[in-house]
Here is the input.
Amino acid sequence: MFEFLSERAQDILQRTFGAQVSDVQWVYADQKGFGDCSTSIALQLAKKLNRKPTEIAEKLAEKLRGSAGVERVEVAGAGYVNVWLTPAALLAELHVTEKACTPQPVRKEEGPVIIDYSQPNIAKPLGVHHILSTVIGQCLCNLHRHLGTAVVGWNYIGDWGTQFGKLATAWEKWGKGKPVEKHTLDELLELYVRFHAEAEKNPALEDEARAAFLKLEKGDRKLRSFWEGVVRATKASLGAIYERLHVHFDTDIGESFYEDKMQSILEEGKKKQVFVKGEEGALVVLFEEESKLPPFLVQKGDGATLYATRDLAQIRYRIDTFHPQAILYVVDVAQQLYFRQLFAAAKRLDWELPQLEHVVFGRMRFAEKAMSTRKGTALKLEHVLDEAVTRAKEVIAEHRDSIQTDDEVALAEMMGTGALVYGILSQNRRMDLVFDWKKVLALEGNSAPYLQYTHARARSVLRKAGAKDETLPKDTSSLTASERVLFSVLLGFPEVLQEACTHRMPHMLANYLYRLCQAFNAFYNVEPILKASKDLRSLRLSLTSLTATVLKTGAELLTLRVPERM
Here is the structure.
C-alpha cells in the first residue's frame, strides 16, 4: 500500500506542480486522529516550489481521495497529509507484518557484516559495564540476520598485551605457588588489583611487567604456559554468563591471534611511509593538521606492539578472510578518538576498506557503586544478574493474585535477566544510563515484565479460544477505534525492524514493542474477543495471535524471552 500511495502521490505532484519527486515517504501512525499513515512531503517541497505547505497538502489530499484502498484523507498541522485506509486494505497489509516475523533468507551475493562486541579481558570476570557492548552487539547481530544479512558475531577477547605482564608478575610474586589453572577468576582479579596497588608504592613493578610481556611476545615457555592456562580458565567461566544472556558468537578470536600478523603490517606501513619514526624510536602515524587527530602510536620504542598494531592486523585479516561489506565495533564513547585514528590509519594504508563504523554507546552507572577494575571495586555482571533474578522473585511474590506460573524459578530468571537487558536496550545507546531497579522491574510501563506479561495475556486468550495461532480473515467491513490503532501499530513492525538495524538503534525496536503492548492492552480492555460474534471473533483472535507473534519475535531479537503463562 505504501508503494501504491507513494507512486500515486508522485504522479499527483508531477501533474499538479511539475515537481519531480523520486520517492514520497509514508509512515504508519499509531495514535488516534492521525490516520493510518501520513506524509510530510508538502513541507519538504514548499521552499522548492515557492508555495505554502498547506496549499500543496490540500491539493495532494484532494487528488488522493477516492483512490483504491483509501477511506479518508485530511490535512493536519503545518502541512501533513493523513490517510485512513479501508479496513480491507489494512487487513491486506497485515500479511507484510506476518512475513516480517520470519527470518529472511541470507543474501549470499553480499559480503557479511562483522560485528565486534563484548570484548572482555582474559583473567577478569565480566563487569556490569560489559553488558552494554554485549547485548547491544548481540541485538545488532540478531537484527541483521533476521533481515537476511550474513553476519559474523565476533567476541574480540583481550588475551594479549601488557596486562599479562602485570598479571604474570603478580602471579610470580603473590600466587602462593599454585598452578594458574587452580586459580579462580576472582583470585586472578585479586592478583591484578594487588599489582596496581603495589605499583603505586613501587613504580619499578611497571618495568617488570613490561619486561615480562616482552618475554611472552618472544616465546618464553613458562610465560606461554601461564598465558594458555589463563585463557582456558577465563573462557570456561564466561560461557555460563553468555548463556544466561542468550548471547552466542561465531568466533572469539582474540588479540593473540595477530601476534604473527603484525610485522607484515608494520613493514607495509613503513614502506608506504605511513608509519614514521616518533619519539624514542617509536612508530607513529601522523595525520594532516585539518583532521585534528593526534599522532597514532603503532609500535613502542622498545619494539613492543600495542592494541593499535593488532587492530590494524585484525582489519587486514578480516578483509582477506571474510570480504565483509562492513565491520561494526560496538565500543563505548571513551574510545571515539581511538577509532577515528584507527580508521584514518587504515585509510592511509590505501587498503580497499569495507565500511568501518564505531557503534558508540554511553556509560552505565549505579549511583552508589564505582566500577574501576584497577581499584577492585568492579560490579560483577554475574552478581547483578543474580540480584535481578532475586528482585524478580520478590515481584512475583508481591503479585500472586495476577501472576501465575508453573515454574517460578524459570519465570524469575526470564523476568530478571530480561529486565536488566531491556532496561539497557530501551534507551538511546548514545546517552549515558543510570540504572533504576524499580523502573525496569515494573509490571506497567516501558519494561521487560510489561512486555512479557502482555505476551502471556495474548497467549492466554488464544489458549482459551482453543487456537494456538489464528490466521487472518480475508476481509472485514469495519473497524473500531481500538482495532484501528492496533492495526496501525502492527503494520509498523517491518519498518521499525529496518530502521533499528540501519541506524544501529535497538531502542527503536524496544520502544515499538512498548507501543504495541499499550495498543493491545487498550484493545483487550474494551473489545470482547472470545464472546464476540463469529466474524469479529475471528478478526480479533487473529489480531491477538499476530500481536503475540510480533512481541515474541521482537523480544528475541532484543535477546529477551517471553513466557507462555504469567
Observations:
- The radius of gyration is 28 Å.
- The domain at 2-85 is CATH 3.30.1360.70 (Gyrase A; domain 2).
- Confidence is low (pLDDT under 50) at residues 370-374.
- DSSP finds 20 helices and 13 strands in the chain.
